[in-house]
Design a protein that fits this description.
single chain, alpha/beta, Rossmann fold, GMP Synthetase, Chain A, domain 3, 2 domains, six-stranded mixed sheet, three-stranded mixed sheet, binds guanosine-5'-triphosphate, cell membrane, KH_dom-like_a/b, rRNA-binding
Length: 307
Amino acid sequence: MTEEHTEFTGSGRAGIVAIVGRTNVGKSTLVNHLLGEKVSIVSDTVQTTRNLIRAILTEERGQMVFLDTPGVHKAQGELGKNLNKAARSAVQGVDAILLVLDGSSKPELEDDGWFRRICREEVPCIIALNKSDRGTNFVNAYQALWEEIKAEKESAVQPVWASVSALQGTGMAGLLDTLFGHIPEGPPLFPDDILTDYPRKLNIADVVREKFFHRLEKELPHALAIWVEDIDEQEKKWTVDVSVMVERHSQKGIVIGEKGRLIKWVREQAEKELYEMYGVRFKLNLWVKVEKNWRKNFWILKKLGYA
Ligand SMILES: Nc1nc2c(ncn2[C@@H]2O[C@H](COP(=O)(O)OP(=O)(O)OP(=O)(O)O)[C@@H](O)[C@H]2O)c(=O)[nH]1
């Protein structure tokens, strides 16, 4: 995986799992049930366009970070380009994909789309046929559709199928075992002590990053990393220190803009959006830094697609 993992000598596993599938199949219910009271984080932040950490499960056998796929939800109904784009970003850089289907009703076009996507993936795919409690069973229809698409695409992907009821909890323990069995060995991605405010930091960074990208687009494609250093939460105002990292001195000027106009615009727009999200005023301190090797230092961010 990453350099950091080579030193790991323990026996635990750690990985990022993307939960995908069309709306209403039971993804939220499933995550809630899978994690139960063991949930370290359930993010209540407003969804942004990027992947969002839904929950982190830490057990003795390892740690699993579940990513939600908000972009895909938004793209429902607009099949084609939008869905493909969202789907692509949803599964980028993850260690496993959990595709949730509603096994109690017949396959829909979006399910077909997800099959086509996972056909091309190199990471393990686990397919959970949910709502097994309903009495109607379309498992064969889904499997037939999968075989058809797999043959058409000449794919070698072999997903693991699991029949579950997220509502009643049937098949949940087995599904969790399967997931743990398909993520790599390694130390936890997130140390325990930073679990609680991690999603919030990522979310704030995400908002700031989005503003920069809105204005800069192709000028700084991969060189910009946004990292929230600290959040000081006072009742009336949150003050947030944000590092804006570029790789070269020449990029510093681009990020700051003429007479500081660009960075001021980013700050104001981000503060406005964060106010709408959290219902509290924000003061963002944006510190532009040149960090040649931020990519190495911020490997978690990168892996999650935030850098
Ligand atoms: N009968 C039955 N209903 C379920 C099951 N799992 C989820 N549901 C119901 O299906 C509906 C949708 O569940 P959600 O968990 O919100 O689905 P989702 O995929 O997260 O939906 P989006 O957030 O819109 O993508 C809810 O009414 C759930 O109670 C299940 O195993 N059996």
